[in-house]
Design brief:
This protein is mainly alpha-helical and 174 residues long. It contains three helices and two strands; from the N terminus they run H-H-E-E-H. The chain has a two-stranded antiparallel sheet with strand order 1-2. Helix 2 packs across helix 3.
């Protein structure tokens, strides 16, 4: 039973120490801080700009679809739609999405595209180097064959099959 507890604890420890869990925790903390910045921008900049055409608080924009929407004896008379709150939340989302896209996603995708192009160029250069090395080795082989052919009477280098010793030739075959 203690072995099972140890393995569960070891599994939990391995889970916590994986890189993606730590990255996710950092992302959540940074996201929370970034949300505060976006909310401050919406309340400090966007709301006053919208307030130039009405009130400074988007939450005060609403419509009444039934009744007068006035508070009578502590209760609201009617059904009030708070579309200003939805507008404020939508603006916060759009600002957050825009900042994330233009400051994080777009530069990262450009960087990755450049990296892929560099890697492809390196791979192409590597193939050219490999081909040129192969050509040099072939030239060395041919030169050695030519030199050894001049030095012997038969012209055989001993590096390949002797003439007439290929498949289908040899003793007992005609």
């Amino acid at each position: 039973m203690s072995e099972q507890k140890v393995s569960v604890l070891e599994g939990f420890k391995a889970f916590l120490l994986r890189g993606n869990v730590i990255d996710l925790a950092v992302a959540v903390v940074i996201g929370a801080a970034f949300t505060q910045i976006v909310n401050a921008v919406v309340k400090g900049v966007i709301n006053p700009l919208v307030g130039a055409f009405g009130t400074k608080n988007l939450d005060s924009y609403s419509s009444c679809i039934k009744g007068t929407c006035e508070v009578v004896n502590g209760e609201v008379d009617g059904i009030k739609i708070l579309w200003g709150s939805v507008l404020g939340a939508t603006l916060s989302f759009l600002i957050t999405a825009g900042v994330v896209y233009f400051l994080m996603v777009l530069p990262m995708s450009k960087y990755l595209a450049k990296k892929v192009a560099r890697d492809a160029a390196k791979e192409g250069a590597k193939e050219v180097v490999e081909l040129s090395e192969l050509e040099v080795l072939k030239e060395i082989r041919d030169t050695l064959i030519a030199q050894s052919g001049r030095g012997t009477a038969t012209g055989s280098t001993g590096s390949g099959p002797a003439p007439g010793s290929g498949p289908g030739t040899g003793p007992g075959r005609s």
